[in-house]
């Protein structure tokens, strides 16, 4: 069953009207009719079971017949990632990280960043699509793009890690992550973090980690980190 998204829907709703775009998709593409069931989420933990009562291509209406609250997992996972030069690769990362499981994403501009302009509206749509495709009840929080200096100046709680390619002593991420512990991981641009950025992270309590023996692209490193955190907590 396909999952639809509307952030304004709450657990007091009894009926729901889809947007014209969604109505056309439901009736014309999915060929849904009166009496058929659909699922809707507000991205805040609620899944609504609904039954179509008006199969109109411009104003499809559904009756809410059941509401389920999905509880969040015990930890919060925050990925801080420098946007890649290729916008397609960064969108691929957003999609896969959402499917695997991430709670918060912050695009960060570093000294060596090749891309310094991003489109938050487009990124939000990618996250929404991935959430619906993977049948999840929570939409990851997408923060505004920020500079490294602005981000690192803020105090953070939980496990703090930075992945970089300098020859510092590092421990594998899988040996650093602990189950049910909040975690923030910094992933740099294609040219890596500068030495200055690495040192500033250390001063703020970030520990260096290794994501394996091979040098990885930014988006690959982010997905490896995401997968590792997920496996440690759900393996």
From TrEMBL:
Residues 19-65 form the Ribosomal RNA small subunit methyltransferase E PUA-like domain. Residues 76-229 form the Ribosomal RNA small subunit methyltransferase E methyltransferase domain. Its EC number is 2.1.1.193. InterPro entries: Alpha/beta_knot_MTases, PUA-like_sf, RsmE, RsmE_MTase_dom, RsmE_PUA-like, tRNA_m1G_MTases_N. One of its GO terms (molecular function) is methyltransferase activity. One of its GO terms (biological process) is methylation. Keywords: Cytoplasm, Methyltransferase, rRNA processing, S-adenosyl-L-methionine, Transferase. Pfam families: Methyltrans_RNA (PF04452), PUA_4 (PF20260). It is found in: Cytoplasm. It is an enzyme of class 2 (transferase). It catalyses: uridine(1498) in 16S rRNA + S-adenosyl-L-methionine = N(3)-methyluridine(1498) in 16S rRNA + S-adenosyl-L-homocysteine + H(+). PANTHER family: 16S RRNA (URACIL(1498)-N(3))-METHYLTRANSFERASE, RIBOSOMAL RNA SMALL SUBUNIT METHYLTRANSFERASE E. Belongs to the RNA methyltransferase RsmE family. Specifically methylates the N3 position of the uracil ring of uridine 1498 (m3U1498) in 16S rRNA. Acts on the fully assembled 30S ribosomal subunit. This is Ribosomal RNA small subunit methyltransferase E. It comes from Maribacter arenosus.
